[in-house]
What does this fold into?
Amino acid sequence: MSKNMKAFNEDEYLNLAGIQHYAFCPRQWALIHIEKQWQDNLRTVEGELLHKTAHDGQAFEKRGDILISRGMPVFSTSLGINGVCDVVEFHKDITGVELFGREGRYLPYPVEYKRGKPKDSDIDILQLTAQAMCIEEMLCFNVKTGYLYYGEIRHRQEVSITSEYRNKVRAVVEEMHMYYNRQYTPKVKLTKKCNLCSLKDLCIPSLGRVRSVDNYIKNMIEEDCH
It folds into this structure.
């Protein structure tokens, strides 16, 4: 996102969770967030159940020097996104930020829950980074670290919120806004990831091999003539 980009109004916000969809496949993101199409598979159902588990219980609880917020709404006017963090932990620390109605200072750590295991790509990290950037804007405090909890290995992975990830988030969000404003669904790019996509039957990625309808008809006519 360019430095001169205006602040967004609430009615222009895009869903923060869409960052992961877009990073996985821009077409998948557009089908879900522009065309409002969705289709569950085993992975999406398991993921939804894991997120519900993360949000179960009290919205805010205290464990020693740690405050735990579940299902915390977050937003960024500069990025034009909003959403909900699975969990945000606030660890008491004199170098932290003051919280309204709480004594002392706290360091915020977003925690995102995922059903599977750590991925080779950075799509989960980008979603977590976007959450951190929202929290930073809301609290006026730098968030340096977050965590990704993976249900398959039942372990959470520490993630440094680096400038590289921040820049990637800005670039992804800028593209998302561009496509959303145009109401444009990108063409399919057939890859191995297509077999893992819950929207495979709606997207029909194999049709992406046909460059255009005109070329398809032309090829069919030529075949009939031979």
About this structure: Confidence is low (pLDDT under 50) at residues 41-47, 208-217. The first strand starts at residue 14 and ends at 15. The two ends are 53 Å apart (CA to CA). DSSP finds seven helices and seven strands in the chain.
